[in-house]
Amino acid sequence: MHDFDEISSIASPMRRLTLQAVAAAGLALCLPELAFAGAYDDWFKAIKLDLDQQVRNLLRRGIDPNTVDEERGDTAIILAAREGSAKVFDILLQNKDVKLDARSRNGDTALMLAAYKGNLAAVRALLDRGAEPNQTGWTALHYAATVGNNDIVQLLLDRSAYIDAESPNQTTPIMMAARGGHILTVKLLLDEGADVTLKNGANMTALDFAREGGFKDIVEGLTYRLKKAGKL
Predict the structure, then answer these.
(1) CATH classification for the domain delimited by 37-132, as one of 3.30.70.240, 3.40.50.1240, 1.25.40.20, 3.30.70.920
(2) Spatial distance between the Cα atoms of 170 and 195, rounded to a whole number of angstroms
(3) From the centroid of its chain, how far is CA 32?
């Protein structure tokens, strides 16, 4: 028979070993979470800086490629298009889980931002992967017309973008082109069948936008087209 002191002296090391084992097991369970601590910040930093290898590593570790940035509501592919992070953009574009038509809080999509940035290759790549050119509200065609990028305007039209798409206040792409003074874009949209008689919520036509901006060549061109069509 062991006395009480002997039993305690035997039990104590065993108890310590048991507690250590439990602690080790608990730590093992937490390791994935601990290893992923800070991944959110690392993810969006890597996208902004176009750190392709870090993005690959984070994807392998299981980060959701559609994680939303708290600041603007951007997903990774939207942010990559916004920042011009070409290497990261290509990685995300090939990821089967990426939602190509995700929208940030202000309604932007990756396609819209690529169009606004004049990134023809990115626009084509997104369309080839199945990105939708026709969205409710502002569209990629509005954005391309805003900056007067005819190559992207033409590509979007060739891929079935609706030429008279209306923004939330009924502004159309040709109105945006006229507003920006982009005469060649106005001509392209007219040649492709844009309706120059449409008015937005402020009761303004493309001609009104051109007049307001003082773009005489566009005013003359639109006036000629309207008269020729018997609409002025």
Answers:
(1) 1.25.40.20
(2) 13
(3) 29
Q: Identify whether the C-beta of residue 131 lies closer than 8 Å to the C-beta of residue 111.
A: yes
Both tokens of residue 192?
């492709």
* Percentage of residues in the chain having pLDDT higher than 90: 78
Domain boundaries, the chain: 37-132, 137-232
Cα atoms found within 13 Å of the Cα of residue 66, Cβ hemisphere only: 10
| Distance separating alpha carbons of residues 208 and 148, to the nearest angstrom | 18
| CA distance linking residue 154 with residue 188, whole number of Å | 8
Distance CA 77, CA 122 (A): 11
What's the predicted TM-score (pTM) here? 0.83
One fold for both 37-132 and 137-232?
A: yes
Q: Which fold has domain 137-232?
A: 1.25.40
State the sign of the Cα–Cα–Cα–Cα dihedral 136, 137, 143, 146: positive
Q: What is the pLDDT of residues 38-71, one digit of tens each?
A: 789 999 999 999 999 999 999 999 999 999 999 8
